[in-house]
């Protein structure tokens, strides 16, 4: 499995933010992680990417247990956090080269990969600008470019379209579709239409529990 979560629980104080959830994603699936604010989506994603430790349960990415084998697990993940901290004073190309170095990439292979993700994310016209000068939509594309840089097999995208206007949303979807081809994608949203536009399967989470896990077709049939 590309992603496998078993009985995952995260407790903050007395609150069970994630309450014994289980689900898995096969290689190549694009799955929507749908739920209202506060449902536990970000917490689950942060556990999958190793930024938070689970209270109980197991999270595996590319068959690596993220708590026992964090490095190989992380290497296979591209993560776009909900509030992606970008360096506003850096130029787009400079920032991507810098991010690649943090991933251990270097030299001409890093340079050609940066050029590749710039094209993939439609950033050609913006690449010489500072990130702080870009629109919200283009900033989000920079975040996506950063998450794809090391060519991960699994993409974990936390509310990638939230706060964008309809045009920007359409463009971000196109980037996810193109860049997510042949990858496993888990992306969170609180809007059903987002799931319908991109996914064939939806996992619905509410108050820390999975309340639905089915294809969109099945969900429609059950009303
Ligand atoms: P979602 O991503 O679905 O909006 P979150 O995973 O961010 O949900 O949050 C789930 C619940 O956990 C919320 O009730 C939130 O307030 C709470 N929570 C999140 N992070 C923390 C934290 N660091 N400390 C305490 N409570 C938290
Ligand atoms: P090192 O200094 O050993 O390269 P890093 O912590 O910089 O260690 O990165 C280790 C691995 O974790 C890299 O292969 C990279 O792909 C991955 N990684 C780094 N940052 C993130 C992130 N934000 N989300 C997911 N994976 C990451």
Automatic annotation (TrEMBL):
Entries under InterPro entries matching the protein: AAA+_ATPase, ABC_transporter-like_ATP-bd, ABC_transporter_ATP-binding, P-loop_NTPase
Instruction: Enumerate the GO terms in the molecular function aspect.
Output: ATP binding; ATP hydrolysis activity
Q: Can you give the residue ranges of the ABC transporter domain? A: 3-223
Keywords from the UniProt entry: ATP-binding, Nodulation, Nucleotide-binding, Transport
The record ties this protein, via Pfam families, to: ABC_tran (PF00005)
The highest taxon in the source lineage is Bacteria
Question: What SUPFAM superfamilies does the entry give?
Answer: P-loop containing nucleoside triphosphate hydrolases
PROSITE patterns, sorted: ABC_TRANSPORTER_2 (PS50893)
Q: Which family does it belong to?
A: Belongs to the ABC transporter superfamily.
Q: What is this protein called?
A: ATP-binding cassette domain-containing protein
Which organism does this record belong to? Dyadobacter sediminis
């Amino acid at each position: 499995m590309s992603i496998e979560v078993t009985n995952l629980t995260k407790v903050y104080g007395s609150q069970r933010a994630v309450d014994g959830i289980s689900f898995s994603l096969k290689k190549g699936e694009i799955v929507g992680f749908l739920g209202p604010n506060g449902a536990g989506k970000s917490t689950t994603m942060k556990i999958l990417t190793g930024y938070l430790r689970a209270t109980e349960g197991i999270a595996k990415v590319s068959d690596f247990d993220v708590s026992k084998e964090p490095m190989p697990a992380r290497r296979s993940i591209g993560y776009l956090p909900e509030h992606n901290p970008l360096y506003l004073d850096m130029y787009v190309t400079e920032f991507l080269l810098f991010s690649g170095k943090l991933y251990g990439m270097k030299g001409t292979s890093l340079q050609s990969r940066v050029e590749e993700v710039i094209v993939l994310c439609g950033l050609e016209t913006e690449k010489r600008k500072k990130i702080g000068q870009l629109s919200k939509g283009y900033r989000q594309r920079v975040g996506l470019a950063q998450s794809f840089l090391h060519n991960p097999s699994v993409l974990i995208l936390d509310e990638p379209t939230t706060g964008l206007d309809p045009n920007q949303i359409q463009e971000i979807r196109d980037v996810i579709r193109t860049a997510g081809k042949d990858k496993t994608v888990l992306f969170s949203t609180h809007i059903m239409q987002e799931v319908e536009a991109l996914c064939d399967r939806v996992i619905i989470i509410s108050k820390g529990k999975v309340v639905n896990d089915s294809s969109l077709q099945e969900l429609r049939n059950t009303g």
